[in-house]
Amino acid sequence: MSDQKIRNNINIFINGTERSVAASEAFKPLAQFLRYSNQMPGTKIVCAEGDCGACTVLVSRLSDGKWSSPQGINSCIAPLYLFDLCSVMTVEGLAQDQQLSEAQTQMRENHGGQCGYCTPGMVCSLSALAEDCHRDGKTITEKKARNYLTGNLCRCTGYEPILKAATNMDLNKWQSLAGKYLTASHSEKFLSQSQDDLILETENLNAFAPVGLKAALEYKSKNPKTRLVAGATDLGVLHNKGRSYLDSVLVLNRITELSQMSHSEKGTWIGARVSLTAFENFIADKHPEFERLIRIFASPQIKNQGTLLGNVMNGSPIGDTLPALLALNASVELASVAGTRVVPLTSFYLGYKVFDIRPDEIATGLLIPPLVGNWQTKLFKVSVRKDLDISAVTFAGAFRIENGTIQEARLAMGGVGPTVIRLPDLEKDLAGKSFTERTFAEAGAKVTQFITPISDLRASNDYRNKVAENLFSKCYFELQEDMQCL
Amino acid sequence: MSIGQNIPHDSSYGHVTGESVFIDDRAFTGSEVLVLPVGVPAAAGVLKKINFEAALRSPGVLAAYTAKDLRHNQWGTIIPEQPILVQDQIGHYDEPALLLVGMDMDELLRARSLVTFEIEKLPAILNIDDAIQRDRYIYKANPFIKGNVEEALQKAPHKLSGIFECGGQEHFYMESQACIAYPLEEGQVEVHSSSQHPSETQHVVAEALGLQLHEVVCVVKRMGGGFGGKESQGAPFAAMAALVAKKLKRPARLCLSKDDDMVMTGKRHPFKNFYDVGFDDDGRILGLKVKLFADGGAYADLSSSILERALFHIDGAYFLPDAHIEGSVVRTNMYSNTAFRGFGGPQGTMTIESIIEEIATYLKKDALEIRELNCYQGDRNTTHYGQKIDHNPLPELFARLKKDADYVARRSEIDAFNAKNTGKIRGLSLTATKFGIAFTARFLNQGNALVNVHKDGTVQVSTGATEMGQGVNTKIQQVVAHAFGVPASFVKVMATSTEKNHNTSATAASSGSDINCAAALKACREIQKRVAWLLFHIIQGTPMNDINECPPLDMTKLKLEDFEFSGKIVSHTPSGTQHNWADLVKMAYINRMSLGEYAHFKTDGLGFDKSKSQGTPFNYFTNGVAVSEVQVDTWTGEYKVLRTDILMDLGRSLNPGIDRGQVTGAFVQGMGWVTSEKLFHNAEGRLLSHSPTTYKIPNVQDTPRVFNIEFIENHENKQNIHRSKAVGEPPFLLGISVWTAIKDAIRYKTAGKLVNIKSPATPEEVLMEISRHA
Q1: Of A374, B178, B363, B382, which is the most buried if we count CB atoms within 10 A?
Q2: Distance in angstroms (rounded) separating the CA atoms of residues B187 and B667
Q3: How do residues B430-458 score in pLDDT, each as one tens digit?
Q4: Would residue B186 show up in a list of annotated catalytic residues for this protein?
Q5: How many inter-chain contacts (A to B, CB under 8 Å) are there?
Q6: Residues near B447 by Cβ (< 8 Å), separated by ≥ 6?
Q7: Does residue A188 carry a pLDDT above 50?
Q8: CB nearest to B697's CB, from A35, A155, A383
Q9: Average pLDDT over every residue of A169-173
Q10: pLDDT over 90, % of chain A
């Protein structure tokens, strides 16, 4: 520890201006800091739960001495300490000397803003779109525009004018944000600080953000009650809504060891601070069906900030990635000062939000074994709204099919009990059966024996039971379509 | 030529740069405090005591106030019966009862959890059925009676009876209720509020504090969305902030969180409507009897007018030969339901659109055939309340959209698609809006405007209109710029303030532009006259110097039509003399002529006899049609909108870009109401879907994949400003086409039986109905 440099403040660029922020301010959500401490009220707070996108700002991180491309995040739920040594770009930083950027110009001319309250967030998301397409030499299609805007709610326009603004952007006129705010002269200022551990303390609050895993494990063993924070996309909401305060935290997002992703024979390894966006891009080839699910999983803002491990460790019965991970026989690695152990997810969830984890342990990564052989997978998320909604029921099915016979089946469902579950009885039942509509309909008819859905504000248990049953038939129809396409 | 041009919104630069200032964006003054309302944890009962001593001792809490601290604790636009803070009787769950004051919101939120209530609970009435059973009514409307419906029903070859039910809707304006009250000298108060109705806010604040009206000023720069939710319901929150400001003599800021806003404020009225309809073999409606019930919630608010607009719009776009339409507002222990874009119109029109789908299913005909047959046309053009539809464009709208959207061919494609077993079914439906424009309370159809021309020829305009994104200020800017022949950039529409424009009506009923543009134009005319008079004397060679000045205006000698204001030039057409606008303005000032004008406007020709339910409540109608196609997943009930085509009649649009945005925005909002926006309450009447995580407004992925919007040409609307038509609410009703299209799709799975779904048609609602017929 003696060599380790400690810092007690946050350093951050806001629209290219360096700011040093004391611990007393560092626990505030970024949006509140911008609006009330930094006199930049352009960024709006509406839902304070990362759902509406009015608070969208762009963030770039230093990684191996280089700036990452600017990504939209929800600044209302993210504590400022997560952005140490980051460059934050807000709506106030998009125009240059009163000259509007191309995203702003098109929004203005196409009536993309009416009341103006969602507009700053929209413009930031459009800027991420323009920046990415400009850099990659891609054209902006309507589909792409919709995907970039999934996390921005607008109540006035019906989105049509905004989509028009997006697709009308002339990328030849785009002045890269990276060129303006993410230069070497900016990064140089931060490089010497990138290996500091961060200790932030006020009278009632404390945060420890080390750069090494060893320090984190030691801290956790001494402070077993501390909350772990990586992206804070879930805990930030609970904090804002007064349901669980983030008063004492161990911050994982600077630990390099946890940012690794790799493919090997053993499977795909995903470190604990890998964002859902990075994960989505990484598995696109290996698990296209998984990638499709992640696409409708959440908004870009949440995926840029939230982690796959966060979803696993939240452990909600309606966690969207969990059925897929369970069906893929994924396991979680748990580390402590005493060593590491690997626990299959099928035995990790013991009850509603009860996990097989010790207080001194930190989940460091996830291993997703490959599917060997002729496997077909189907993942469903059923919700009131297709995108950016919490599921009523989730379903994952993986089937090894040879010569029209199901050799092996793995089934997992969420939203049908206190935890996400595998359905071993039905799996056994399906093995050896022929791949027909009837086989699946019969399995569906039995599923209600194994599930215990509740009625709540998302759906009644009747609906959940009915959907659970129907998803087997839907699965058959869609698999059949997929296989015909092959 | 500023009018008719597609110019950007007048705040668009500020919106895209983040410079536009909303209430909570205003810089904090040193001593400013934050106000956090605390709601009661019960829907019905008597509030005995609030225990807030622990909260007062909590760090950062400066003060706490209750109903006792208000001079008057009752407000209400129509009937003053709603408490600002709960006094004893509890109206609904989470109704504000206590104000906590401090300087840090985190501290206030932590303190709020320490507050407890002593309540003598009573059984709560949480829906229309219970209220009917317990005979709890806020208002019963006089029935609308046309002909003899009993006889018509008896004689009709076919009869259907049923119940149509639709849920409420959260406004979900992005900026929740917000205001800051600044204490001024001599006990006066200046309130900056996110309000559609500054005059009422001024009045409610004054009354609550025991002030006279001239001691309160309400200023509204803009709102981050309103949609009706800030017509009446911004006022009590302004009163709360003003109370704190007055008590502490410090500026007080009250900006609700989205969660608090959703649980505390009223929403669109749920309706339950019982109907009997008689029709002939072709589907021609012969008689319609409907009993409407609206859930008013705990207090009257605007419910009676909303119910009446539902009665006015029960005909949709269709002629009713004999009708008996009656309605009531029931009182429940829900938040007090209020104005929301459409104001009862959607709930009325959706009823008949649903009935028409059922007639079609029953007769095994395409629903569009039934609609074309019943659409107002020829001499079948008088409504059930006796107003004739002038220059009726409805037949043209139906015919053109049917052709443009390729309805017939698509119907056959859908028939073929649905015959295959794919786990997916499609539906298609074309519905209409015929929306009456004017406040149905006649006295509200008035407004005033103040136009000030400055010495450089630029203009500041103030009206009672409030800007909530709808572009009313841009339209006023265009009308004024057009009148003076100057570019729109010469005209600034100023913040709305009760010290400049008083006794104004809410910016509501889609009439903001109609009334306020007309008032502004009237004021411009007076200034035009003076400037023209001056030019006339320049041409005449009237001496104007240190000794002589321009003589007083004599209208008997001035022919205003001889003068043209265009391109920053004022021309006298007969003589061909031209003069620079800005120079004339300067000269007028030197000649001591007034360059400011205040004008009052009222809408002519309105009159409705409530006792007979007959007359002319509306100035004109805004019309439109939409056809939507949906695809439903029969395994889950989920669906998507594949395509929507809209055709609107907006007269001569003042700004086609702004109007187009109103159409797309209203449609998608309407679509949300009938699909994903479900309000969920627990058994105690507490709203559980109180944030966007649980209450789903449409997002960018939900809008129609193909979305075509067109306007027809219509130059006949002479009774409105520059022959334009109001646009705010009418297209909201077109969202109904998505719901009827879902209903149409399910029809393919019911083997000829009627489809029975409520609104919103959530995936659960859809799947359960499909399962019922499986």
Answers
A1: B178
A2: 46
A3: 999 999 999 999 999 999 999 999 999 99
A4: no
A5: 244
A6: B463, B464, B465, B501, B504, B505, B515, B516, B518, B519, B600, B601
A7: yes
A8: A155
A9: 98
A10: 86
Tell me whether residues A114 and B9 touch, CB distance under 8 A: yes
Asked if residue A1 has pLDDT above 50, the reply is no
Give chain A positions within 8 Å (CB) of B693: 47, 49, 51, 237, 390
Pairing outcome for strands B424-437 and B323-330: unpaired
Which ipTM did the prediction report? 0.98
* B499 interface with A at CB cutoff 8 Å: no
pLDDT at residue A360 tops 60: yes
For residue B766, the chain A residue with the least C-alpha distance is A463
Are A384 and B763 within 8 A, CB to CB?
A: yes
Partners of residue B222 in chain A, C-beta under 8 Å: 115-116
Nearest one of A188, A277, A205, A300 to A245, comparing CA atoms = A205
Report yes or no: B356 and B371 within 8 Å, Cβ to Cβ: yes
Q: Round the average pLDDT of chain B to a whole number and report it.
A: 97
Q: Please tell me the least confidently modeled range out of A109-118, A120-129, A288-297, B741-750.
A: A288-297
Q: Is A450 on the interface with B (CB under 8 A)?
A: no
CB spacing of A387 vs B21 below 8 angstroms = no
pLDDT at A297 over 80: no
Q: A160 CB near a chain B CB, below 8 Å?
A: yes
- Threshold 0.90, pTM exceeds: yes
Residue B691 in contact with partner chain A when CB distance is under 8 A = yes
Chain A residues with CB under 8 Å of B30 CB are none
CA gyration radius, chain B: 28
Please give the distance of CA B570 from its chain centroid, rounded to a whole number.
39
Could you tell me if A328 and A369 are in contact, meaning their C-beta atoms sit under 8 angstroms apart? yes
Tell whether the model's pLDDT for residue B565 goes beyond 80: yes
Examine the pLDDT at A41 and tell me if it is beyond 90.
yes
User: What are A197-247's pLDDT values in tens digits?
Assistant: 999 999 999 999 999 999 999 999 999 999 999 999 999 999 899 888 888
Question: Residues B241, B181: contact at Cβ < 8 Å?
Answer: yes
Rounded to whole angstroms, the Cα distance separating B252 from B237 reads 11
Average pLDDT estimate for A159-168: 98
Q: For B670, name the nearest residue in chain A, comparing CA atoms only.
A: A158
Q: 3-state SS of B717-759? A: CCCCHHHECCCCCHHHHHHHHHHHHHHHHHHCCCCCCCCCCCE
**A458: which chain B residues are within 8 Å (Cβ-Cβ)?**
694
DSSP 3-state assignment of B9? coil
Return the number of other C-beta atoms located less than 10 Å from residue B722's C-beta: 18
CB contact at 8 A, B173 and B359? no
- Which candidate, B241, B693, B654, places its Cα nearest to that of A238? B693
pLDDT at position B233 over 50 = yes
Cβ within 8 Å, pair B174-A155? yes
pLDDT score, position B731: 98
Using CA coordinates, name the residue in chain B closest to A116.
B15
CA B157 to chain centre: 40
| Cα–Cα distance measured from residue A363 to residue B116, given in angstroms and rounded to the nearest whole number | 40
Q: H helices within B70-136, ranges in order?
A: 105-112, 128-133
Q: How many CB atoms lie within 10 A of CB A135?
A: 14
What's the gap in Å between the CA of A41 and the closest CA on chain B?
A: 5
Which 22-61 residues of chain A touch chain B by CB within 8 A? 35-36, 39-44, 46-49, 51-52, 54
Would you state the pLDDT for residue A486?
60
Cβ contacts of B694 on chain A, cutoff 8 Å: 390, 457-458
Length in residues, chain A: 486
Residues of A in contact with B638 (CB under 8 A): 382-383, 386
Q: Cβ contact (<8 Å) for B18 and A49?
A: no
Residues 78-117 of B with CB under 8 A from A: 109-110, 112-113
